[in-house]
Amino acid sequence: MHRPEGIALHFDPFHLPPAVDLLYRGAEVVPLEPRAVRVLRYLAENQDRVLSKEELLEEVWSDVFTTDGVLKKAVSQIRRCLGDDAEQARFIVTYHGRGYRFIAPVTRRAVVQTAVEMTAPAAAHDPLVANYDQLAGRDAELATLGAELHSALDGAPRPVVIVGESGIGKTQLARHFRRCATEQGAMSLYGRFFDYRGARLAPYELFLDLLRSAALGSAANIRPDDGRPLRDLLEAACGVRLPAELFTDAQSAGDAVGAGNVGDHFRFVVPICRAWLALSRKQPIVIVFDDLQWADAASLDAIGCLMRMLDGERLMLVMVARADEADRAGHPLRAWLEENAVRRAYTTLRLQRLDEEDCRQVIGAIFGIRRTGEIPRGDLETLFRLTEGNPYFLVETLRLLVGAGAIVPETATRRWLWRGMSDLSLPETIVTAARAKIELLPGHVRTVVEQAAVIGDEFQMGTLCRLVGESEADVETVLSEAVRGGVLSTHGLTPGEDCRFQHSILRHVVYDAISPSRRRVLHARVAAAIEAVYGESDRVAEALAAHYAAAGDARRSFAAGLRAWRAASSRSEWRKAVAVIERADEMARSLESTEARLSCSEHRELLLALGQTWCAVGRGRESAAVLDRAVSMASAAGDDASLARALFLRGRTGTLLSNYVEARAALAQALDLFMEAGNTAAISRTLVQLAVVEAAIGNYDRSSLLVEELRAGGPSEELAALADGIVGWSLALRGRYAEGAWLLERALEYHDRLGEVRERAALLRRLHWTYLSRGLYETAIRLAVRARADSATVGDVNGEAKANLGIGQARLAQGLHEEAVSFLTRAIDQLATNGDAHCEAECLWLLGRARCETG
Predict the structure, then answer these.
(1) Farthest-apart Cα atoms in the chain, separation
(2) Which positions ≥6 away from 371 have C-beta within 8 Å?
(3) Cis peptide leading into 13, omega within 30 of 0?
(4) Which residues is 417 bridged to in the sheet?
(5) What's the number of CA atoms in the CB half-sphere (13 Å) around residue 323?
(6) 129: which DSSP letter?
(7) Taking a C-beta distance cutoff of 8 angstroms, is the pair 806, 765 a contact?
(8) Residue 123: phi, psi to the nearest 5?
(9) Of all helices (H) and strands (E), which one includes residue 447?
(10) Which residues touch 433 (CB under 8 Å, ≥6 apart)?
């Protein structure tokens, strides 16, 4: 097969070959990072002029947000490799305030390229190198995004949701728009979610990574290599200090709480959102969240909260989602989009498939074809019919045609020659096309790509090097071939990652082709590599649990799953906590009949975790059952610390189920144990719970004494607000509605300000009852509706049921019997699965009353 020539750049004794990011001294590769090589190449190609920092950043780092600090670092590395001196430069001269210029003589020489090298992306000015990074037929969508950007720059932002089928060009459109946003002076950031369990991080880690990038980019006095903790860095950049639990080891955080945290995650979400808003006041920000259909509940809550806080800020949100999930009834993303459409207006861009003319423009742009007729009409029609206007499918098919020699560059005419597709068997599906593309890679490259597929859609160089057992330079060379082959990419990465698969379809195809036995071996090796890179970081605990489970190592999967649970529960992300602890429980059950079964202490810890989690999400019956077992086991073992925690949680569960006598007994025992241990934080939490129980059963004086005891200890602002809520509730129960409502509303203001949704829901329900008792039914109903929404937000089924009960009770008092029966029936259904017999009985009584009143 004829092979075209490429251009190598020589500046003795070094040279840069075409289509590969490597620097050579003679025949030896000089160790230099790929992006630094690209900087060097661009400087050498444009030696006739001074290149500004902005131009170099846009050329080499156009796909990620960064600062000129990375450029300075790259130039420093280049000079070190070239043996250059900034003061007496032989290669690169610095023009202070202007940029850099390459001054050494450069010779351009033609070299023969391989078939793989022919597919590599290159600068648009070379017509014989295909440039697959094209966007066509999206002028209207880009114009809409541009208009929304201008609105955001003026302080009137409207979020944008980009929806379309897989491969339709959603990510490509977002990437091109991000370049436009950067040109307009905005900071552009990119985050992506994954469906692959082996790639999932602890709650909020993606947001923290993006905040670090934003903080480094927004503060002139902060260096890119600043080693300060993110909490301090962010406070220096924007004046917002995030909760310490976001940065504290989960085990330490759990020990500090002592009594067990069952708060809600919005106390983390709200400060994160405030940090974004503060940063956007220094420089406009555009954040793209890709593959939103795979975001976990905590991430969706964080994005939804940020959407509601955008008014008057220079911050634009762009969310990218697959249409299959966004349009499918019952999918969490569809429910989330519908819910947020009510709370905040947003623009939806629904991408359609390209028409035949758009496809022709894409093909022309890839191969530098500007005249009609250069693409044979029959071939164009075949490509359009085959790919049905899907841009990704079209580009992948063109890559295959180039690799197979159906389309080749012609050196003499400086044009691409179409040899015809009549005798070529084209792939019928994109999966077949993906397999064919992978088969074009050399065997040793396929082996490394296969191992990368087990890591995930994105991966760090350090993890992959550990996995394959090769040096970074060797792995970089292999990855460069996979990038040129269109299988991997270094564009559109989330913070902290080095490479990714060009499309998730490709990773799935590679992964699915691995035999089950080899897959188990690779998952075990991936888990070991991740642990070697990250240590015992809670950040990757869920991913480790998934890899060990896939490797058949239930023991290690359980241990990692328990760490993942601690990370989720310490950040009050209970929906995530339910998922990870139930998987850990499944692993523990699989070990019961083996020598690797759990020890007594591990079994107690698992029971406590299950009980705490189920209590937090309102699954009272299940929580009570496992906590009774935990109490018995801890008592028999003489483990007072576990016993105190189990008793406290059992008391909370008893309160949840309205079993106040049981709750009081358990909490009293827990209080004694905490006092013996001198656990001040746990003592305060237990006093709060005891005061709530005493008020609920009518022991108002005892409740007041407990609150006074709490206040005597000089409580925090949070505990003071909890005390206000208890006293206010106690006063309302005694018929002193005005005094009670005032204290309840003061407590509500505090929790509302901090975004503590779970506690806010409880206060709203108590305020509902206070206004209901005074005959102010519509006000009471509004409060109950808000309480129900808050309970649904944090996944508290019990809270939702009580709110529906309250609405039904108010409608019944108004004589609106049909509505009352509807809400009470809904509450009965929820309570039946929850186990709150007291509220269930009250619901039944109210339903009976409604039936009697309607005859």
Answers:
(1) 101
(2) none
(3) yes
(4) 408
(5) 14
(6) S
(7) yes
(8) -65, 145
(9) helix 443-455
(10) 393, 396, 397, 400, 427
- Do residues 396 and 166 touch, judged by C-beta distance below 8 A? no
Identify residue 415 by its one-letter amino acid code: R
Residues facing 365 on adjacent strands: none
Closest CA to 351 of 588, 166, 510, 533: 166
291: phi then psi, degrees, rounded to nearest 5 = 55, 50
Tokens of 645: 């925690």
Q: At what angle do helices 170-183 and 139-153 cross, to 10 degrees?
A: 40
Q: Are 8 and 18 in contact (CB under 8 A)?
A: yes
β-pair partners for 349 = 162
Distance CA 688, CA 284 (A): 44
Please work out, in degrees rounded to the nearest 5, the angle formed at the alpha carbon of residue 198 by the alpha carbons of 192 and 201: 55
SS (H, E, C) 625-642: HHHHHHHHHHHHHCCHHH
124 pLDDT exceeds 60? Answer: no
Residue 120 to residues 457, 689, 760, 838: CA-CA distances in angstroms?
A: 21, 65, 56, 69
Give the other-Cβ count within 10 Å of 345's Cβ: 10
- Cβ-based neighbours of 223, under 8 Å, separated by 6 or more: 69, 216
Q: Which of 121, 118, 125 is nearest to 133 (CA)?
A: 121
CB 268 within 8 A of CB 245: yes
For the residues of 413-436, what is the DSSP string, one character each? Answer: TTEEEE--STT----SSHHHHHHH
Beta-bridged to residue 102, according to DSSP, are 92
User: CB–CB of 764/790 below 8 Å?
Assistant: yes
Beta-bridge mates of residue 7:
110
**Cα separations in angstroms, 365 against 31, 121, 454, 486:** 34, 12, 35, 17
Residue positions counted in the chain:
855
**pLDDT, mean of residues 537-545:** 92
Q: Which residues of 283-295 are buried (b: 16+ CB within 10 A; e: fewer)?
A: ebbbbbbbbbbbb
d(CA 3, CA 149): 45
Instruction: Find where tokens 């970081």 sit.
Output: 537
Q: How far is residue 696's CA from residue 709's CA, in Å, rounded to a whole number?
A: 18
**Helix/strand/coil for 288:** strand
- In the three-class reduction of DSSP (H, G, I as helix; E, B as strand; rest coil), residue 692 is classed as helix
Contact 34, 480 (CB under 8 A): yes
Highest average pLDDT, of 64-68, 93-97, 603-607, comes from 603-607
Going 334 to 338 to 340 to 346, the CA torsion angle's sign is positive
Beta strands (DSSP E) in 96-171 are 99-102, 107-112, 160-164
The residues that bridge with 94 in the sheet, in sequence order, are 100
Q: What is the pLDDT of residues 671-728, one digit of tens each?
A: 999 999 988 888 888 988 898 888 888 888 888 888 888 777 776 777 788 888 888 8
- For the chain, give the percent of residues with pLDDT over 70: 91
| CB of 564 closer than 8 Å to CB of 558 | no
DSSP 272-284: HHHHHHHHHTTS-
In whole angstroms, give the CA distance from residue 792 to residue 794: 6
How distant is the alpha carbon of residue 635 from its chain centre? 41
Residue 840: which residues within 8 A CB-CB, separation 6 or more? Answer: 828, 831, 832
Which residues, in sequence order, are CB contacts of 518 under 8 Å at separation 6+?
none
Q: What percent of the chain has pLDDT over 90?
A: 33
pLDDT of 64 reads 55
Q: Give 499's strand partners.
A: 459
Q: Are 807 and 789 contacting, i.e. CB atoms less than 8 angstroms apart? A: no
Strand 23-25 and strand 14-16: the pairing is antiparallel
3-state secondary structure of 353: coil
Separation between Cα atoms, residue 351 and residue 347, nearest integer Å: 13
Q: What is the mean pLDDT of residues 150-177?
A: 91
Cβ atoms within 10 Å of 736's Cβ, excluding its own = 13
